[in-house]
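Just curious. Protein, please.
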Amino acid sequence: MKNILKFIIVFVLTLFARTVVRRYRPKIVMVTGSVGKTSTKDAVAAVLAQRFFVRKSEKSFNSEFGVPFTILGVSNPWNNPFAWLSVMRNALALMFLPNHYPNMLVLEVGADKPGDLARILHIATPDAVVVTLLPDIPVHVEAYACPDAVREEEFSPATALAAAAPLIVPADDPYALDRALRMPAHVISYGTAEDASVCLQGIGFYEEEGMVTGMTASVRMGDEEGMCVVKGSVGRTQVLPVAAALAMAKAFHIPLGEALTALEWYEPPPGRGRLFTGKNDSIIIDDSYNASPVAVEEALTTLKTFPRANGAVKGRRIAILGDMLELGRYSVMEHERISALADDSADVVVAVGIRARVFAAVPKHAEVLLFDNAHAAALALVEYVRPGDVILVKGSQSIRTERIVKALLANPEDVVRLVRQEKKWKQKV
């Protein structure tokens, strides 16, 4: 019965969303890929808002529910029947009454299982596509025959593009680049490769008064050059969304200077490398939104290279790592690989979850602490951290490692800047 009800709701939402798209004919930018979609979507929307009336996907609403919600301009009604009635009223108003509708939609699209993106492409056809990283072992791989099947699906929005339409791809990703070069689209690349259309160089930590407050890089786009700064978050992956947004600016003939000015207001979403002051004068790198192998690898690199504050006590590098889920038969192999990287990057490895116990098997240098869940880890770690400690927190969504971040915050008011703080999430175990 539940599946039948879901089918009916998706059918009605799809019908409404398709009708709205046909009526208002907005340009549609789709952001797809395995890593960094939400950050990229936010950065792209920030740049395009300089020239267009833009609506973007809220948070990570990228499913057959989330995409129609964005098109209709409504929030997720969850299980509230009155909120669902409001969704229907909004949809009918858009379909039959005059409205000032956006002329640009920036839609994040994602797939948990085969066919998900085909259903989304049935709702709307993109005018431009941004592809983020397509790694060796993508997230959700357990639902697919092989990793390449995931990459094919995640790249599939690009196949819906008209000839010569903008296709933005990471120049450092051979999977994405190879597929793009076989397309009739107008390919614009971004990344650290020397021949990238938008080339990043000198990626490093941004410091103010001796304290790390973000990331910085120099940018070259054709004959134009500039500097970009991303404040509030750390990691190489926090700069790549900016480069993708600049590539989209190039596609729409927005000068580099204008695009960089627009990005001064860009802030990475919660749970993506966000910096916080922790208890006992520690530093927290909150990367708790989700965890795939390539994302954990990047986060550990960030932890390993994070500079010490001027004059600060030399603390420990602590990696709090939760289970990486949805990896299927690749799970043990990838947890073992990350275990070795964690030992090389951290003085202390805190493993949270059953699968994460593999982290205790390989490390020889790092101290290892094991916890069954985030609640237990949060209780124990409050008194464990010391002045100068740099603490990375990362884990798959279901592990809820944001609870650990919350417990370690020096300023309780910072909790509103964490991921999954809505009432519905807090009610979940």
The mean pLDDT is 93. The domain at 2-195 is CATH 3.40.1190.10 (UDP-N-acetylmuramoyl-L-alanine:D-glutamate ligase).
